[in-house]
Task: inverse folding
């Protein structure tokens, strides 16, 4: 029997009216289960404790953890707050990149070449716990290769943030 399917698509939503913050749990679990890499792109970075710890633990295990952030802010205070997470993340081995041509508003992830997600969820507390958000997760689908190619080509336009930069 030939399988003509192109993987799986799992749409989901977050709501402040639900007890479980679906995206926060998903991202924490992805980082905990990854064996090779987990790459994120987000315009805002304000992590809760569990997700922050998951980023650091994954990097400490040798997982290639990357985050693409804007090189130019849309909101200066939020930009500064997002950058306050850089020192601990970079010290732990999380690779942070800033998109130099301007503001990157993409939100998504790709993990181990098997799963990716795109949608409205930022890596910030408001988005993860207080807003109504929508995402789609793709498992073993062709879009994963496309997202990976896009991520890698976007890295060509990014500045890598070093430990020296965050001191």
Result:
């Amino acid at each position: 029997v030939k399988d003509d399917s192109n993987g799986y698509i799992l749409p989901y939503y977050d709501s402040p009216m639900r007890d479980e913050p679906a995206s926060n749990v998903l991202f924490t679990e992805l980082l905990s289960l990854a064996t090779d890499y987990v790459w994120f792109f987000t315009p805002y970075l304000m992590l809760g404790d569990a997700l922050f710890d998951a980023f650091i633990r994954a990097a400490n295990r040798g997982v290639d953890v990357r985050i693409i952030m804007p090189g130019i802010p849309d909101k200066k205070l939020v930009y500064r707050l997002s950058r306050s997470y850089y020192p601990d993340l970079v010290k732990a081995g999380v690779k942070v990149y800033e998109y130099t041509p301007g503001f990157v508003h993409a939100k998504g992830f790709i993990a181990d070449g098997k799963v990716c997600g795109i949608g409205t969820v930022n890596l910030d507390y408001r988005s993860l716990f207080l807003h109504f958000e929508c995402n789609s997760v793709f498992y073993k689908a062709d879009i994963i290769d496309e997202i990976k190619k896009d991520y890698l080509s976007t890295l060509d336009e990014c500045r890598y943030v070093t430990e020296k930069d965050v001191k």
Notes: The CA atoms of residues 86 and 166 lie 7 Å apart. The chain is about 35% helix and 30% strand.
